[in-house]
Prior knowledge:
Layout: E1 5-11, E2 16-25, E3 28-38, H1 45-63, E4 67-71, H2 79-98, E5 103-106, H3 108-115, H4 123-133, H5 142-156, H6 160-165
Parallel strand pairs: 1-4, 4-5
Antiparallel strand pairs: 1-2, 2-3
Helix pairs in contact: 1-2, 3-5, 4-5
Amino acid sequence: MSVPIRILGIDPGLRHTGWGIIEQTGMRLSHVAHGVISAATDISMAERLAEIFECVGELARHHGPHAAGVEETLVNANPRSALKLGQARGAAMAALAMAGVPVAEFAPRQIKLSVVGTGTADKDQVKFMVQRLLPRAGEMKLDAADALACAICTAHHLPPPLRRKGAA
């Protein structure tokens, strides 16, 4: 019998950071929890980053994931936005590293391909497939669906030592 491996997925954002936790037992995936960290928009950038850092750290301490996946920043036409999003991503990754959780990074296209079967899927298609793959997850916001998709992608790409070790 396989030992469950708990995986935390993060979809970083300055306003809304989605998070989702799944367990993988053998080839079976099951939903544990999901949600969105919503930082106030009327506080400084440093305070927003601190809030993301604290909340992700608390998620890691409370749920004890064995691995985490974080969506990479899509470099788009607006370099300033990409830089700010990268800072939110960095705050989440630093919190996971401080909690001792190994972090994998995935491009949005790779996550979509892993969950939907095409790297060009839109957010609604990702949410639809996440709800089909994790039926007990129920209703969710798009940011949480993206985070659960990242967790699923992470499960598909776990390194062999972690697969063998599991929760042991």
